[in-house]
Amino acid sequence: MKRTLKIRPNASEPIPCPPHLSDEARKLWESLSPSLTESGSLTTATTAAFEVYCTAFSDWRTHTAAVQTQGALIKNAAGFAQQHPSVSIARAAGETVRKFAKQFGFASSKSKPANKPASTLTVSDEIRVTVVRFPDRNALMLRYIDPITGKQRHRTARTVVMREAERAGAKWEAELREGRYCGSRITWAEFRQRYEDEVLASLAVSTDCKVQGVFNAVERYINPQRLANLTADRLSVFQSKLRDAKLAESTIGPMLAHLRAALQWAVRMKMLASLPTMEKPKRAKGGKMMKGRPITGEEFDRMLSKVTNLVGDSRAAAWTHYLRGLWLSGLRLRESLDLWWDRDDRLCVVLGGKYPMLRIPAELEKGNKDRLLPIAPEFAEFLLATPEAKRTGPVFTLTPQRQHAKPMGEWRVGRLVSAIGEAAGVKVSTDAKGKVKFASAHDLRRSFGT
């Protein structure tokens, strides 16, 4: 029996749009499907892929608009700043759009990508390496003029024989023309966009926010137009500006570490020829490593005795419970306010196993992995004292003084803990100007395990 193939009556007729697509995705389908069908890119075999492309484009546009309207950071229920969910959704949708765009010929390999490293730009034909002799050098030198900046670049030929120097120059010129040239054309904005898409997208949200803050500070204080503008001199000015802004050396250090990591990645991607020198902040002679110190048990009892005076009778029990939790857990202020009994997507207490544990979701962890960590026995006993019926919601609930006020955020809670320390007269340090620092939430953390 002879088999027959069913052929559509009109092969150039556009494939109809699936009815379940959103309005934005439908508009894109209807605008592109005629030309794609005519070119043969859109067939019954590629319909599903094109559907994914249109849906991803719709998601990208929707969530990008949400970020532009509402901002990249929002406040959560505890009053902390966190990344808007639409940021990661838009980023993932954009990656999908780029991936499927190649399949349908929207990103032709013949065209030059906008974010292509400067090492592959068409500048190689302008590079000419010549051999020169300097009166103060024994060896011959190789030289070429950077076609972007117009500056001369030199390196030694490691020989005094002209023929050998010419061979070395020809080899270097060939390397430069083969794409190993690290020019200075790439802009700071292009570098930042690539780093956000290719590196920060895979890191924890907290790390993403910290690096974004560093990049914002770079733009605010030295505003580099090109990545190559980040020279050792400019980075030294950047450190000076941070100190003028009254930032502590303990804050400047991590900021420079994030910036160094980003520039090291740029070197590996051939965006920079070399890593600029970056001086590490040094502690002043006689300066202290810590701004505070661990407090003693007697000092902690004094703080507890002042809770009622600061927060009132109605809130004293909750605040005493909170201070004991900080004392026994070693948690940071932010972590303590974001600790939950029953939410797997947040920092969460797990009491059902053999040993009490602390679950850290991947998005809150530097290694971007879900982790279970053991809890100190004293803190576990403290948690188990809470009746099972009350083990819902946040572990620590600190109500504001006014009935309809917003939930207390990290800043307000920290200020009140410090006020309790001051009322108890618990001094932890005195600076060079004689200013006294009283016990804070971080000093309670320092006391953990001592």
What does this structure look like?
This protein has 450 residues and is α+β, with helices and mostly antiparallel strands. It has five domains: 23-103, no CATH class; 122-180, no CATH class; 188-268; 287-338 and 394-450, no CATH class; 341-384, no CATH class. The protein contains 15 helices and eleven strands. The chain has helices at 23-39, 47-70, 85-103, 162-180, 188-198, 205-221, 232-244, 249-268, 297-305, 307-311, 313-329, 333-337, 377-384, 410-423, 441-446; strands at 73-75, 81-83, 130-132, 141-145, 152-156, 339-340, 347-350, 357-360, 371-374, 427-430, 436-438. Strands 6-7-8-9 form a four-stranded mixed sheet. The protein has a three-stranded antiparallel sheet with strand order 3-4-5, covered by helices on one side. The protein has a two-stranded antiparallel ribbon with strand order 1-2. Helix 2 (47-70) packs antiparallel against helix 3 and helix 6 packs across helix 8. The radius of gyration is 30 Å and the shape is flat. The termini are far apart.
